Amino acid sequence: MKIICDKNKLNEAIQTVSRAVATKSNLASIEGILFVAENGALTLTGYDFEMGIKTTFDCDVELEGDIVLSSQLLGNIVKKSNSDKITIECDNKMNCKIKSGMTEYNIKGIDSTDYPDFPAPSRDNSINIENSLFCEMVDYVIYAVSQDEKRPAHTGVLVKLENRKLTMVALDGYRLAVCEREVDFEGDFSMIVPAKAMNEVRKIVGEKDGKLTIFANRRYIIFNAGEFIVLSRLLEGEFLDYKKAIPQNCTIKAIANTKDFINVIDRVSLIITERLKNPVKVNINDDCISVKCSTEIGAVYDEFSADVEGGTLEIGFNNKYLLDALKASKKEELVFEFTGSLSPCVIKPKDSDDFTYLVLPVRFKND
């Protein structure tokens, strides 16, 4: 194999594909990137059996071939190169010469015959979604994904299509995030996609215009994101019936400025540490919301104005869980619905149905 590539194009490809490379495995080949040069193009693949990322781009192919190269080493070589062009030449004994300007490396590659095949789910079950809509929906829910591997289904995002509505749901036992959108495609499916895959697709799509094509079957999902393809194994297990978890009838409702609430929680959180994780006490009053907290460091009180209906209430929250929901909303004003001091708080936008957040309260020690 002998190829000549644009440095920036190769660097972007390596940095992205490397995120699907296994960090440690009994199979040495999946700790590297598969390079395949043919038909005037270079294809790079990273695949650790759980997630894979593949990309293809044009380059000068003087001799077709394939080889597996260390993602970390090659990534550093290309990133630190001071030339616009990178030449990679490999012989049939896996000896690889990498040239960049006056710099030349000679490294050992791995035979590609040991590299696993990239799964190809049936393309019958597919949808197209605007990049911007996908990113928006992921941003609304991804923060609530569980980190607890004991409940593997909750370490992913539920992606559901039903009655021309696309829904994404994430939860971790302490908070719940639901985002639902009407879409112009039909179908009926429900699958749990690992959070890592959702994040990677979100990074790749970024602010790019265009559409994302999604293919899925019972075991795998593929995201076709322009120059990059992301594949992920789906998660198995039962996902919580999230609709039953959301209270339907509130007794107290407050409308508040999101930035004001964030700033108050940020200030109150200054006396909360990893060791002193006391809850913040939120008091819903007639015309304001006050927040206070006491730890061994000291005590703090703050408040801001709000429109309140239905009475007063004192309720405790983990400061991080509340902040995550407020920051993820990206809305100027939010509606907070309460049914009691021991019931979840439901958070919604004031003027739209973009999302529904649920945050569980924290019991005070004297409850």
What key phrases describe this protein's structure?
nine-stranded antiparallel β-sheet, elongated, alpha+beta, eight-stranded antiparallel β-sheet, 367 residues, 7 helices, single chain
Explain how this protein is built.
With 367 residues, this protein is of the alpha+beta class. Helix content is 19%, strand content 42%. The chain has helices at residues 7-17, 71-79, 131-141, 195-205, 242-245, 258-268, 319-329, and strands at residues 2-6, 32-38, 41-47, 51-58, 60-63, 65-70, 85-90, 95-100, 103-108, 126-130, 156-162, 165-171, 175-182, 189-194, 211-216, 220-225, 228-233, 252-257, 280-284, 288-294, 299-305, 307-309, 313-317, 333-338, 345-349, 356-359. The strands form four sheets. Strands 14-11-12-13-26-25-24-18-22 form a nine-stranded antiparallel beta sheet. Strand 20 and strand 21 form a beta hairpin. The radius of gyration is 25 Å and the shape is elongated. The model has no long low-confidence stretch (mean pLDDT 93).
Helix content: 10-25%
Tally of strands: 26
The helix tally amounts to 7
Overall residue-averaged pLDDT value: 93
Rg, alpha carbons: 25 Å
Contiguous uncertain segments of 5+ residues: none
Widest beta sheet: strand line-up: 14-11-12-13-26-25-24-18-22
Shape: elongated
Structural class, please?
alpha+beta
Binned strand content: 35-45%
Largest sheet: 9 strands, antiparallel
Question: How far is the N terminus from the C terminus?
Answer: 71 Å
